[in-house]
Design goal:
Length: about 350
């Protein structure tokens, strides 16, 4: 009996031991595969000198750790010089559209080892006071990066602000411009929801969406309402086309970025002439959030803030129908100009 118990105990210990060794081996293999996941980054010649097209793994670790500290202003001049870090003007800008998914796009692109994001919206080109401070002021707002990395900024107000295309053109006429769009009526409601939440936070009352979107005198769509105007994408794009050829724009499908982000990001990598480095591993669906979240490595992952992905208020279906009918011809024109068609009603 005692012998039987001893045998059983030994067997149990053996199983536990194998499990522990198995887990250890798995972890070692996992870390190894992570190294393989983003070890080297060949960057296209457009964005860096040839021959300098590989970012060693140490540099990536640096990017995620120390560089983060530097961005917060914790770098000494000596460290910056030692690591050859620079604050570069953006080579690509997410110019809009507000509530299109601009934050998700920026954060997801930042998963790419050759991309460094400017965390804050800088509002350099749309804000006269900031613009008057000059381009050096703008550059100093940029994060530190290696010379072969590219900096990306996002300020969605750029898309709709009259003066911005000319100002960006003056800085860099060959800059790459990213526009992320959503079905225009949904975007307008999302825009309204954000403003509504701001009012509620201040204990203020606000109008219903229907009241703002429809002119009570004419019963037609109220084109003076900013959330409606912003969704007339073609009108804004036409202003940009006076300065930049359409080839310099890439349109991102914001609705697809929510449900299936990887293919959209791969199109952006291609547009930016970056080697494909963002993989399915970097994106995982979080059922609690109801959105894809970001996985940088085995220890570091994050979801977007709670302010992204708000619940929209119910809107009268007749108002939705009216808005969709209103946007329809503008959408057709937008498809025609951009060469990208969406299944918008
Ligand atoms: P809603 O709040 O209407 O759902 P922006 O960053 O331009 O303000 O856009 C916000 C929108 O990004 C959100 O709109 C949300 O739907 C969308 N989005 C796209 N991908 C997301 C993600 N992974 N996590 C959270 N929100 C995401």
């Amino acid at each position: 009996m005692l012998f039987k118990q001893q045998v059983l105990l030994r067997q149990k210990l053996l199983v536990l031991g194998s499990l522990a060794i198995g887990s250890l081996l798995y972890l070692v293999a996992r870390v190894g595969s992570l190294d393989r996941l983003q070890p080297l980054c060949p960057v296209d010649g457009r964005f860096g000198p040839r021959g300098q097209d590989e970012i060693p793994l140490r540099a990536l670790q640096f990017k995620r750790g120390l560089l983060h500290e530097f961005r917060k202003g914790n770098a000494t001049k000596e460290q910056i010089r030692l690591h050859n870090l620079v604050q570069q003007l953006p080579k690509a800008i997410i110019i809009g559209v507000r509530k299109g998914g601009t934050r998700a796009l920026l954060e997801m692109l930042n998963l790419h080892p050759a991309v460094v994001k400017a965390s804050q919206e800088i509002h350099f080109f749309d804000n006269d006071e900031n613009y008057a401070k000059g381009i050096e002021w703008y550059r100093k707002k940029m994060p530190f990066s290696y010379p072969h990395q590219i900096t990306i900024e996002k300020s969605p107000a750029y898309f709709i602000t009259e003066e911005v295309p000319e100002r960006i053109y003056k800085m860099n006429s060959s800059i790459k411009l990213l526009i992320i769009v959503r079905e225009p009526t949904t975007r307008a409601i999302s825009d309204y929801t954000q403003v509504l939440e701001g009012k509620e936070r201040k204990n203020k009352t606000y109008y219903k969406f229907e009241k703002l979107a429809i002119d009570p005198n004419t019963c037609e769509v109220n084109t003076k309402y900013k959330a409606v105007r912003t969704s007339i994408y073609t009108k804004h794009l036409e202003r940009w086309l006076k300065y930049f050829p359409i080839e310099q724009f890439h349109i991102v499908d914001g609705d697809r970025l929510i449900t299936e982000p990887l293919p959209e990001l791969q199109l952006v990598e291609k547009f930016l002439n970056l080697p494909p480095r963002i993989s399915q591993y970097n994106l995982y669906f979080n059922a609690t959030r109801g959105f894809y979240c970001l996985r940088f490595n085995i220890v570091f992952n994050k979801c977007l803030a709670g302010s992204k992905g708000r619940i929209h208020p119910e809107v009268d279906t007749s108002v939705i129908t009216k808005l969709r009918k209103f946007f329809h011809p503008f959408n057709q024109k937008f498809y025609q100009i951009t060469g990208r068609t969406f299944n918008w009603p």
